[in-house]
C-alpha cells in the first residue's frame, strides 16, 4: 500500500459567493507525481493555494471540507502556517528570483531559519542546485546576479530555492509554460529525479507533459474533479466522456 501524503475530503472553495471548487475528494501518495490537467478557470491553481494555505491571503475566500497532510488537518487553528509553507513549496509559471546573487537566493531561506555559517550555506546551495540540475551551469559564478540567468535557469533556480528549506511536497503551477523545449525537458527530468525524495503535484496545460512525467493524472473541469487515475490509463482509456473530449482537443 502506498502511503497517503495529502488527503482532500469534501473540499469546497468559494471566492465571495462564487464557488470554484466543488466537493473534491482525492488523495496524493507519498513520492508520486500527480498531474492536474483541465481548461483554465477550472480551479487547478486554487487547489494548490489551498494545499499550502496561500489562499488565506485572499480576502473573501472560504474553504470548507478537509485537507490533511500526513494525517493532520492543515486548517486547524493549531497549525503554524509558516511551518506548513516550509513543508509545502510552490513553483509558479513565471520564475521570480530575488534580485541578488545566485548564492544569496539560495542562502535566503536558510538564513531566515537561523543558519549563518558560510560553509553550511554553501553546502545547502550546492546540494539544492544539484537536485534541480543547475549546479554544472552555475557553479563557477555563484556571485553573479540571478537575474542574468536564462528563463529556464531561473525556473530551476526557483526550484533550488524552494528545496533549501527542506520541503516534503512541491507544487508546480504550469512551471514550463514560458520555457523552450530544451529547458522544459530539463525541468521534467529534474521532476522525475525529485520524485525519489518528494511528493509532487504538477499543473500543466500540456497533456503530453502530463503523460511524460506523472504517475497519475487528475482532470478538473469548472471546479469539479471529473476523473483521476493512472496517467497511461487516463490518456488511453478515459472513463468519462468529458475527459476524452478534453484530451482529444474537443474543448479547452
Ligand atoms: N483571488 C481570486 N479572487 C476571485 N476569484 C478568483 C481568484 N483567483 C481565482 N479566481 C477565480 O476562480 C476560478 C478558478 O481559478 P483558478 O483556480 O485560477 O483556475 P485554473 O488554475 O484552473 O485556471 C476562476 O473563475 C477565477 O477567475
Ligand atoms: Mg491556474
UniProtKB/TrEMBL annotation:
One of its GO terms (biological process) is phosphate ion transmembrane transport. GO terms for molecular function: ATP binding; ATP hydrolysis activity; phosphate transmembrane transporter activity. NCBIfam families: 3a0107s01c2. One of its GO terms (cellular component) is membrane. The lineage of its organism: Bacteria, Candidatus Gottesmaniibacteriota. It comes from Candidatus Gottesmanbacteria bacterium RIFCSPLOWO2_01_FULL_39_12b. PANTHER family: ABC TRANSPORTER I FAMILY MEMBER 17 (PTHR43423). It comes from the Bacteria. This is Phosphate ABC transporter ATP-binding protein. Residues 6-247 form the ABC transporter domain. Keywords: ATP-binding, Nucleotide-binding, Transport. The keyword Transport applies. InterPro entries: AAA+_ATPase (IPR003593), ABC_transporter-like_ATP-bd (IPR003439), ABC_transporter-like_CS (IPR017871), P-loop_NTPase (IPR027417), PstB-like (IPR005670). It holds the Pfam family ABC_tran.
